[in-house]
Structure formats: C-alpha cells, structure tokens
Amino acid sequence: MISNITADYRARDAAHHLHPFSEMRALNAEGSRVVVRGEGSWIWDSDGRRALDGMSGLWCVNIGHGRREIAAAVTRQMAELSYTNTFFKSTHPPAIALAEKIATLTQPHLSHVFFTGSGSEANDTVVRMVRHYWAERGKPAKQVIISRRNAYHGSTMAGASLGGMKPMHAQGGLPIPGIVHRAQPYWFGEGGEMSPEEFGIAAARDIEAAIEEIGEDNIAAFIAEPIQGAGGVIIPPETYWPEIARILAGREILTVADEVICGFGRTGRWFGSDFFGIRPDLMSIAKGLSSGYLPIGGVVVSSAVAEVLSANEFNHGFTYSAHPVCCAAALENLRILEEERLVDRVAEEIGPYLQRGWRALADHPLVGEARMVGLIGALELVPDKPSRSVAFPDTGKVGTLARDLSIANGLVMRAVRDSLIIAPPFTLSFEEADFLLAAARKTLDDTL
Ligand code: PLP
To answer: One Pfam match, by short name (predicted)?
Structure first.
C-alpha cells in the first residue's frame, strides 16, 4: 500500500517529468520511487521506508548523505559570491583553491584543471581538447580517439560517442566521426578458454592492432575507464593496464583515464590510475569530486598538455565551469575525505571487510563471479555456473532480477545486463556492510 502523498507525487511526476534512461510508460504504470531524504548510507522514500544506498546515488555520494558541513560551506559561498565566471581573464578564490588542491592529489605530472559541470561535459571537453592539442602541435590529422566497446563516457553527443554502448548509438545519430571502439577487458563474459592473464594481454593487444590499422599519425588519444563502471564493473585482469602502458609507451598517443567513477577514492587510492599504475596525460573527473552534492567535473591535464593548450585560445567553456558554489562544495568534500581518512578506510578497513563478504556470495547457485575492488563490485548472475555463460533469458525471475532490480530487501543495487552492482559510500559502517551482504544474499535466494 502506498500513501496518498506518494500517489500524488507519482501522478504529478507521470504528468510532467521525463526521466533519463527510463522506459516512461512502464515506469508510470509501476510508479516511481519517491526519495525524500538521505542521511549517511541511507535514503528514505515518501512512505517512510528506508533503504541502504548501495550505489551512493549514481556512484557519487562517497562521503554519505546529509553532511551538514557541505551545506554550511555552500551557504557561506552563496552569501559571499554566488556566481562569477572564469572566462575572459577572470578567476575567483574557490576555483584557484580547488584546482590547486586537485593538483596536489593527482600524480605529480598532472598540474592543471579545466572545470566542467559534469562527467559528460568533461569527456566532451576531452574530445575537443586532444584534437586541438595535436592541431596546435602541427599534427591536425591526429583526430581518431580509440575507446572500447561497452565503455560509458556520458550522454552528450561526444560523451555517448566515446562510450561503446550500442543502445545509445542507436539513437540520435551517433557516434560522431573519428571514434573507434575496440575490445574491452571483460574476461568473465568474453575470455573464453583464456586465463584472465592471457585475456588481459589479448584485450590490450586489440588496442595495439587498432593503432596499427588506423596509423599513429591519425590517432589523437586512447580513452578508458580504469574500471568500467556502468558497463558492469569490469575489473581488468592484472595484465591489462601494464600491457596498455607498454603499447602506448613511446607512441604519440595521449592516454585519457576517465576517472568519473574511480576518481577520489573509489578503489582505495585517490585515482583508479594510481591503483592500476596508469600514467594518464588527461583525466576526466566528476561525481566523487563533490560527492554529488553539487554538479561539478573537470579535465585534469599534464603540464606538457597544459603548456601546448596555453599558447592560443581554446574556444571552449561552460557558463558553469568552476561555478564558485560547486567549487566550495568540492573543496569541503575533499577536506572531509582527507580529514576522515576515507580513502584509507576504503583501502584498509571497510573495503577489505566488504570484499570478503562479497566474494563469499560466489558460493550462491546464481552467482558465477563476485568481484570487487575498493568499494565497487559486481555479481555476475549465471544460469549455468560451470559454463560461465552470461546469456540469460530476458524473462523469468532471474532475468527480471538482472534487468530491473533497483531496490530489494532494503538495499539499493543496480542491475547491468546480467550483473548486480554496488558502490556504497566510503562511510559505510561494518554493521551496514553486514546488512548489505545479508540483503544481497536474500535477494538472490528470493530469486531461486
Ligand atoms: N564517465 C563515466 C566513467 C561515468 O560513469 C559517467 C556517469 O556515470 C560519466 C562519464 C558521465 O558523467 P555525468 O553523468 O556526470 O555526465
């Protein structure tokens, strides 16, 4: 039974609101979940039911919900200076402080930040920036960007083009020219008879094959998420990133790490690049930069790239690039992450604890693999364990679970293809981790 309040919300939502990534007719028939409050790891709906937010919203609320310190920092900044821009030779203290702070957290060669309003805008910026970079260096033919199948880099024209998701390309005339999608390091689904190590090498060598086919003179950059998030939490085999590094070493191809999910601690290191030993020339950031309290993203670039970009005007920018209030939220978020040692907590305390319990779910008859790094994990649901088959029917209890799950047994998880994924807040307590694990197991049991 739902309350009159919820019924009213749902009717008004259905009447006027088109949701992103939603089949609206089905959603309206069922009625959306109306979330009205968040505190710590929990969210509450309009009927007072609470759920553990196992996805940190959309992999972003890393410091947990309802932090009054962020509200206070934002309020202070709004009262001081609610808006100014960073175009036309202007700047402001929160932008200066945030760029400086990010430069101290990233690898030493990464020195400058171009601010955006989101991860998609960051990746749009990447496309223009890497092509502009090579044009500035007198190599305008270097236009192609190599990405990977099943990657997710956002929803704007360029972001969705960089992404390798077929359903997104099927709408809106995508991809834009000059984007090439090659192998993803998805051993569980595509590794066949190869060991993970062999497959990691093979997937990286497909990138090398692309470089040879297209020609280095035509290639601007290679872009990849350190761990593919929306593609199903695809954690590459250990051999993958070192082999990519070998392939790109000495080649005139920029390495772009999309750190929108991995960045700011999700893997237990400040960046996924640090975790996997990637040395990017550019990094896209968003989400964890402000823990989702306000929209802000950016592209972090090396001093070598910054120098080339600094010679002439880069005709690019957004009204909300380095929005002062969003910068203030991000600065406060980074202060909390540091002062509460939350990244270390992911690496040393709650991460290993949750990983142990999560991996134990692999004994469940429906689970083919239970993988997790830091606080980002997936369960691969399989109809037939020994075959590692990922081809599930769309129907039936398991098919429905794998496709439609968003909340069950008081736990928010997300269904991607045939996997269930989690990325809980870094502030998750041990008791909450136990709750998460029990709820995940119960959801699997309910489906048998
Ligand atoms: N890049 C990655 C790796 C993402 O996961 C996302 C969003 O989930 C984006 C880019 C797009 O970010 P936004 O939704 O802020 O535009």
So the answer is: Aminotran_3
For the CA of 58, the nearest atom of ligand 1: 8
Query: Does the ipTM exceed 0.90?
Result: yes
Residue range 58-65: mean pLDDT, rounded = 98
Closest ligand 1 atom to 120 CA: 16
> Closest ligand 1 atom to the C-alpha of 287?
15
Q: How many domains does the chain divide into?
A: 2
Q: CA-to-CA distance for 175 and 151, rounded, in angstroms?
A: 13
Q: How many CB atoms lie within 10 A of CB 17?
A: 12
CATH assignment at residue 348: 3.90.1150.10
Same domain, 376 and 411: yes
Domain that holds residue 415: 33-63+343-447
Q: Are residues 107 and 252 in the same domain?
A: yes
Residue 119, ligand 1, Cβ within 6 A: yes
Q: Which of 339, 363, 389 is the last residue of a domain?
A: 339
Are 328 and 351 members of one domain?
A: no
Q: Is 231 in the pocket of ligand 1 (CB under 6 A)?
A: no
| DSSP letter (8 states) at residue 359 | H
Quote the CA–CA distance of 70 and 64 in Å, as a whole number: 11
Percent of the chain with pLDDT over 90: 88
To 10 degrees, what angle do helices 396-404 and 430-447 make? 140
pLDDT in tens, 355-390: 999 999 999 999 999 999 999 999 998 877 777 766
